[in-house]
């Protein structure tokens, strides 16, 4: 059995895999080698280097492990047509992303950017606006593993959490739930609106100008899911019209964010270069999931972690 990686774990991580699974042949190559892929049974990737033409030629490929949560760059249709199993690392981002999200919220609430700017200017001023997180309401679009972890932490700060998903079905650490269809009804109650939604047919451009017009003028909008949940021109307009007070953006329609984009110079926007999930533990956690799944797969166990529904795209 040949297992091809198109990224390079640390040497000791590679050695651990080889020693744990001696019956498998591991090949670690970066970038993707198309000829090697043709004879691989398992392919492990970050999900940005596999195209439809690769699937056509990879006759032996049975399982694709994506060491990421996002799948929008994967040729899902072709993978489904070949009936290839696909899994990802859903869930490993929850700790670093929840910490990043909370850091941004507290920074804004306590005006830390202003404090830092005053320090750079050598200006002593204690007339800095500060507000409490306690008693506020957070609306979380996409209350899955990451959203649930954010909800758990926010509840510890005394925040009322509202989850929003396609069905309105209950999710962990949400005080109440709503659906995409009823989103406008709850937006006026939220002090923080956080999107952690994936990119799917249902979520692309889900948020319109009318949604931002429904929000509190003091609201913080945060996007840590995928950039196409709202058109950037719509968000720029909403910010200029003061429909909301702040936007914290970790993802964008096109990345990297182009030079001269309005977001760079807007005082009420924080640009985070798609880094909220960065962690020294990322690859370790990804390989833990892969190893558990590989053990199950080699034992003929069908129940594996994070199997992707290729029709839904998640």
UniProtKB/TrEMBL annotation:
Keywords: NAD, Oxidoreductase
Database matches in CDD domains: 2-Hacid_dh_1
InterPro entries found in the cross-reference section: D-isomer_2_OHA_DH_cat_dom, D-isomer_DH_NAD-bd, NAD(P)-bd_dom_sf
D-isomer specific 2-hydroxyacid dehydrogenase catalytic domain ranges (all copies): 19-306
Residues in D-isomer specific 2-hydroxyacid dehydrogenase NAD-binding domain copies: 102-276
MF-aspect GO terms: NAD binding; oxidoreductase activity, acting on the CH-OH group of donors, NAD or NADP as acceptor
Top-level taxon in the UniProt lineage: Bacteria
Entry similarity comment: Belongs to the D-isomer specific 2-hydroxyacid dehydrogenase family.
Protein name: D-2-hydroxyacid dehydrogenase
């Amino acid at each position: 059995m040949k297992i091809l990686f198109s990224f390079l774990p640390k040497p000791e991580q590679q050695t651990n895999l080889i020693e744990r699974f001696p019956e498998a042949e591991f090949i670690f190559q970066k970038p993707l080698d198309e000829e090697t892929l043709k004879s691989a049974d398992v392919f492990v990737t970050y999900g940005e280097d596999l195209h439809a033409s690769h699937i056509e030629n990879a006759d032996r490929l049975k399982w694709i492990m994506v060491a990421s949560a996002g799948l929008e760059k994967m040729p899902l249709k072709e993978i489904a047509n070949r009936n290839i199993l696909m899994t990802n690392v859903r869930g490993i981002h929850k700790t670093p992303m929840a910490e990043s999200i909370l850091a941004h919220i507290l920074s804004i609430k306590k005006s830390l950017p202003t404090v830092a700017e005053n320090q750079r200017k050598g200006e002593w001023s204690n007339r800095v606006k500060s507000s409490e997180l306690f008693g506020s309401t957070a609306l979380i679009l996409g209350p899955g593993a990451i959203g649930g972890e954010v909800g758990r932490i926010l509840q510890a700060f005394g925040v009322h959490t509202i989850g929003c998903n396609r069905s309105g079905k209950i999710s962990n650490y949400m005080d109440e739930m709503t659906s995409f269809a009823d989103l406008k009804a709850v937006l006026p109650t939220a002090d923080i609106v956080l999107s952690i939604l994936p990119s799917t047919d249902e979520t692309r451009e889900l948020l319109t100008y009318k949604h931002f017009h429904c929000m509190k003028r003091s609201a913080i909008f945060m996007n840590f899911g995928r950039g196409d949940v709202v058109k950037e021109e719509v968000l720029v307009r909403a910010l200029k019209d003061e429909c909301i007070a702040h936007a914290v953006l970790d993802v964008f329609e096109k990345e990297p964010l182009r030079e001269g984009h309005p977001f760079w110079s807007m005082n009420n926007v924080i640009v985070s270069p798609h880094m909220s999930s960065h962690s020294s533990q990322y690859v370790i956690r990804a390989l833990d999931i892969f190893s558990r799944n590989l053990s199950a797969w080699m034992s003929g166990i069908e129940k594996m972690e994070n199997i992707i529904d290729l029709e839904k795209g998640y």
